[in-house]
Design brief:
407 residues; alpha+beta; Alpha-Beta Plaits; DNA polymerase, domain 1; 3 domains; 5-stranded mixed sheet; 4-stranded antiparallel sheet; 12 strands
Length: 407
């Protein structure tokens, strides 16, 4: 069958959990939950299919997961391992695509229009990908082949785990989903589905028959939802570029609420170092700095400050602290900082002498702050900070600091 556009959506099956079960076969057949521990604050990163039988799912509060599955095995994620495996997975996927749009460590859209030529060619590519993932990595993935990104994602979900499904045309897509709940459309999340349900719009057929009501209820999102309810999706596979990101940030949730704002300033310093590291790794600067706070009552606030140019930890830190000092002092559950309005255009104008002076001052200020933290918390930071930029190590360091804050 000739198709104007042929897209594959490849999605690893319970990726983190599958990697852990591959590496430790004793975990197989048991409910495995990857994320926070039950006595910690946090969420489920992923879980295997045995855990899903109990109602556990990704992004669920870890305490809710424990109530549903108290006898499950709970593990912290090993992100370095997952990233290394993900890189190899993407090498395999990319061999068969003219364009690849990576959505997460374990998921991507692949444009195989040219390399496949037709549906039969795409089918062969899909099964080759599945075979190589299984043979070379000992893992499984589900693959959907379709005429559009929406349909390809729907197809990959259709036969999970280790599934294959194809949706060649818009008519096939509509026929498959028309009498399913509105949440079958991937842009319809829990809150959107609730709004539609409350308006008596429960199925895709209802969306098609009540287009005006959907648009009135949801605005621009409603217009998009009505389009895909008719199988219309002309988006292209677009390779990810770091500069397309809206912001670069890092945030942390504390295991116990924090009331001491002097301690929060120390945390902001470490978060600012991490943001700088991420920004320089992808060659981007920001034109704004943002502070995020979530209080103990779950109310979140954001404060922002425009700046001419920013990829430096000390500037991020100073501006974040200034914003922190201006907010209401109440127990804090989460804190984060970020840079936004990103650009690869480094047009900061400095003379050579100004540059050397600025660099020297920033280095001196950074070293002084690191030394201050070492002394305050009896910490032995590594000579380089690379380890601290790892999310799990950063979180453990901050938790150690919280428990040993001298104030």
């Amino acid at each position: 069958m000739e198709m104007e556009q042929i897209i594959i959506h490849a999605d690893m099956d319970a990726f983190y959990a599958s990697v852990e079960m591959r590496d430790d076969p004793s975990l197989r057949g048991k409910p495995l939950i990857i994320g926070s521990m039950p006595n910690e604050r946090g969420v489920v990163a992923t879980c295997n299919y045995e855990a899903r039988k109990y109602g556990v799912h990704s992004a669920m509060n870890i305490k809710d997961a424990y109530r549903l599955c108290p006898h499950g095995i709970y593990m912290h994620p090993h992100f370095d391992k997952y990233k290394a495996i993900s890189a190899r997975i993407n090498e395999i996927w990319n061999e068969y695509a003219t364009a690849s749009e990576r959505i997460a460590l374990d998921e991507a859209y692949l444009d195989v229009t040219e390399k496949a030529g037709n549906l039969e060619g795409a089918r062969e590519i899909a099964h080759t990908i599945k075979r190589r993932i299984r043979e070379e990595l000992g893992l499984t993935c589900s693959v959907g082949v379709a005429y559009s990104k929406t349909a390809a994602k729907t197809a990959s979900e259709e036969k999970k785990p280790d599934g294959y499904f194809e949706i060649p045309t818009a008519e096939d897509f509509v026929s498959l989903i028309i009498d399913r709940d509105v949440n079958v459309l991937y842009t319809v999340g829990e809150k959107t589905a609730e709004k539609l349900h409350n308006a008596g719009i429960r199925t895709v057929r209802d969306i098609r028959e009540r287009q005006a009501d959907v648009v009135r209820l949801l605005g621009k999102q409603g217009m998009w939802i009505t389009q895909i309810a008719f199988g219309i999706d002309n988006r292209k596979v677009t390779p990810y570029r770091p500069e397309d990101a809206k912001s670069i940030g890092r945030e942390l949730t504390f295991q116990a609420n924090v009331s001491n704002f002097e301690f929060l300033k120390d945390v902001l310093f470490l978060l600012s170092l991490s943001v700088e590291n991420r920004a320089k790794r992808v060659g981007l600067s920001g034109r704004g700095i943002s502070l995020k706070i979530t209080y103990a009552n779950m109310k979140s606030i954001t404060r922002s400050k425009a700046v001419p140019f920013c990829d430096d930890a000390m500037l991020i830190y100073r501006e974040s602290v200034n914003m922190l000092e201006q907010i209401e002092k109440r127990p804090v559950r989460l804190i984060g900082t970020s840079i936004y309005n990103l650009s690869a255009d480094r047009t900061k104008q400095l003379s050579f002498d100004d540059y050397l002076g600025t660099l020297s001052n920033q280095t001196s200020e950074r070293d002084s702050k690191l030394e201050e933290l070492k002394n305050r918390y009896k910490l032995d930071f590594p000579g380089h900070l690379d380890e601290l930029y790892h999310g799990e190590i950063l979180h453990r360091t901050v938790e150690y600091m919280r428990k040993h804050f001298p104030g």
